[in-house]
């Protein structure tokens, strides 16, 4: 059996591995597990076939399931924003969670983080664990300053929300009520479909909902009609309401707010909607983390040939509603309607909820209100528009041919002709180009040449070769504070590189260092020198302990107290654990004093008298064996007992070395006990000044109490990163066209060898489209770490000559002007998207920031392209 009566490690490994493959089913409950803890558990049970060398090692025992790294400070229910699946947490089904908790327990004071599986999409159904619940702000129309925040599932209905609000605001059952959706500070729309889910109704994170009670003394008045089918009514306090009136049905006219009728899929407009005078200068209101969509749409909206195509209704003759790969023409219609509103010149901003709803119907990943990737939305939109507008009604089957040594010109023309036989649309006309791909087999030297179409050019940025890590150095001197260092280490390096870098700054020999990861007051991991630095994540607390020839023991700290209202005692972990070096032959009194001395600089306790240390000569004592668990003479208390402390303050400033006292006579500041198996119910040490502990130390655990941590900062912490690397766009394209060797997980099937080979691959540009979409990848991402690439890229606003990058000898001049930039500010999984675009009518640049549109100078555009702190950046270039 494994730890604490749990199933053996092979059983744990097998059962959890099977359960992790469970299919998602609507309504099922899954649980979040901190990936930090889960990674430690995998190491302990030998989950991965390549990582079994520490299987069963008590030094990597994970302890109780601990999700503190996922939780907001001081909240046992709310999780942090922008957590990423597999990088920050692991999802396990109910049965898997129950097994893990039965084997290891759950950290005291924590609650399970349970989430429901919901179904997203309308035509394309897609199950997903709803990690983030939708937080809604609820209030009454009579007091909108009294806001109550509640979390709901996207599967919850409007009726459920209304019932919850009636309960929260103590509204009598006999009172009639209705709900309003409040957005853009003073604009309201009715929520009159009680069976609609939060997702269907388009409610987003932070949305304000207002509940109104029927007022018998007030009658509605019929407002005038908005030309686009909306009623406009201004309440006595100036609040504006938008009511669709395609079929006007006035009911319950005794409400204090205006009457309304069923929701339509028309766009809603704010009270500023008639202020804009120029086409295209219209913002898009944020529906809740939809800035990614707004940025992409504004960039595409300012692509002249595509926008003219929709404004002139040319798309209506080319709608392909029967294309099985398309969206039944719905995406094209929704986009066309949105473009017409943006370019009508009548509105300062519009609310693109119907467009987003249509996108979510066919691409469930965009149906929610989490932050998404602007580039992924743009890629989906271009592909969706292409299939909805494909002029090919019946795609022919085409047998692909190998180049077989034929001239590139012949093979390229053949590839393009084959492409347009199946794909012919306005999107192909404007955005599609052609790559040349060359693969060479390393065994038989077979050369395979293909020409493949592309819709956007994804360019890598040169990778940083180094990274910085912040670590704490703990020296042997117990009175020395830990010192924080900032190290520069190779990005693809080893723990030994970390030790070498720290040695250069501290003077401590690299071979005398123990590198540890402290998590939730425990030694989460002790690293081997040959482990990869990639195993250290950004949020890890790394403590490097100066090693010694003595036995090194990990020490954990616990606080003992009685819980209010309960009879039992609680002993939660606190503070930072540490390592202590002790000789193999050691008395209990001596060990106590070593621990006391180690914490001398940060212990502040009440005591009658001064802190004393024991300088007895251990050699004069007689060796004794540790008592067994069945030894009747063994004390039932921990070492030192639970004596209460008397008056007097002791600390670093008034401790004195050399004073002696008997372990039986003095009052102990703390108790401790050994714990070989990682739990606290192991045999205790009797309090006996003559007892010796000889040759019994392994990497055990000792528990203390009372800790107040502080540290010094080394001058390296003042280090500021060097000026960001500056690259030209040419550098990115050259990196893109560099020959590379395929990875072992992505081999190429060689038709000569009849097996998969790690071939060399080279991409080249053969032809470029009239409008070139360039996507700059600013984040490198792996399962265990993420890294932002904040290099500067020199991107000209006009006259970008791409001819030198084309290998087609007949390509001719190829120059581009910049027409739009989509920027993302902030880190991965969060931040904010904006866009810069050049208006096709007046030729001026504007900044599009959700509903706000403002003029921008060319200097601003250059700054944005060069130094925006983004992880995704895309630009649209117009050929001339």
TrEMBL record:
Reaction(s) catalysed by this chain's protein: Thiol-dependent hydrolysis of ester, thioester, amide, peptide and isopeptide bonds formed by the C-terminal Gly of ubiquitin (a 76-residue protein attached to proteins as an intracellular targeting signal)
USP domain boundaries: 282-880
Polar residues bias spans: 652-663
Source organism of the structure: Oreochromis niloticus (Nile tilapia)
Record key words, sorted: Cytoplasm, Hydrolase, Nucleus, Protease, Thiol protease, Ubl conjugation pathway
Residues covered by region (Disordered): 613-663
Name of the protein in its database record: Ubiquitin carboxyl-terminal hydrolase
Source organism, top-level taxon: Eukaryota
GO cellular component, one term: cytoplasm
Biased composition (Acidic residues): 613-628
Domain DUSP positions: 7-118
Name of a matching Pfam family: Ubiquitin_3
GO molecular function, one term: cysteine-type deubiquitinase activity
Family of this protein: Belongs to the peptidase C19 family.
Tagged with keyword Hydrolase: yes
Compartments, record wording: Cytoplasm; Nucleus
E.C. designation(s): 3.4.19.12
Keyword match Cytoplasm: yes
Lineage of source species: Eukaryota, Metazoa, Chordata, Craniata, Vertebrata
Any Gene Ontology biological process: proteolysis
